[in-house]
Amino acid sequence: MAHLFTSSLFPFSIFLYFSFIASSFSDKHSSTFASTQTRFWSENVKNEMPAAISTKLSPLTKLDSDYYTKTISQINFKADTKFCSLAKLACWASASSPSLQAKIYKIYAAKHSKPTPSLENIDPFSFFRSSNLKQGDTIHLSSLQESLAQRAFLPPQIASKLSLTLKSVTQFFPHSSKEAIETTLSYCSSAAIKGEFKSCPKSLEEMINFSKITLGASKLLALTSKNTAGSDKMLVIEKVKQFNAEKIVGCHEIFLPFATYYCHSLPSSRIYAVDLIEPTTRTPVNTALAVCHMDTSSWPEEHVAFKILKFGPGQGEACHWMNEIDLAWINADVDNI
């Protein structure tokens, strides 16, 4: 029996119809701005895009992106329900509840150079020593889970219209929590410590470009913890791999109505992939990313790391885990296989 779709039996008009449907589907998919972000990633990053990023790609169509780029250029633009829904933004105050604000403060206080007055609500395992990363040893894995509202990146042409000032952000997003925005911007505008390069990139493209410039790299490698398994548990270290990176850019997601990160590079930092297993069954649990800052001499005396580790600036290194929404960037031109 002849095949159903031979050239003699399958009408050319039907062939054209299916070709049109396939073409329409392809055009529709490629019309989303996410495809532009994906292409930018592949041009600048060596490895695949992690879920921490892929879930934040802009759902705006290119047509919508162009429209809002022009609209936002107008005076007194304010994000309305339609724009926030189309762009997948968290524009309302309910997205930054008091409990979430406490979480945000905890994230900043535990990981950055901002001082904190006490250890209240701070994970006592937030920081540890590099000597704790030994094969066969037991270690407490901090929680790698985060509860920040899900938001997408803005296309760079829209993000460029927005300056990271309280006046600008609250004008664009009048229904968002002013307190939450002010908290975030205070960290973005704080002075860098000695040897630190820092930025709060407003788009995926800005984050990649900042990391490339800071690292002097033509192409990047993006590193993340594998998942959140083993959070808040005692686990056994099966293997530790140190990446061959002279410089690292760490990016920690922060709260604004759109996806954005606090990115910084501290001198004398090391990064490790730590394979963790269950103590009793010895089954694999996770591969978590750990960063160790070997030079703490320029950190403020009030830093929470010193309260946890019981020493002062310059008296030892401070290590911490990278959670599910954190990213670490290193130079892909260096062999790390």
UniProtKB/TrEMBL annotation:
Localization: Secreted, Cell wall; Secreted, Extracellular space, Apoplast
Superkingdom of the organism of origin: Eukaryota
Domain BURP: 127-332
Keyword Transmembrane helix included in the entry's annotation: no
GO CC term, one of those recorded: apoplast
Signal sequence interval, chain numbering: 1-24
Main location: secreted
Keywords carried by this UniProt record: Apoplast, Cell wall, Glycoprotein, Secreted, Signal
InterPro entries, per the entry: BURP_dom, PG-associated_BURP
Protein name as annotated: BURP domain-containing protein
Organism: Perilla frutescens var. hirtella (Perilla citriodora)
Lineage per the UniProt record: Eukaryota, Viridiplantae, Streptophyta, Embryophyta, Tracheophyta
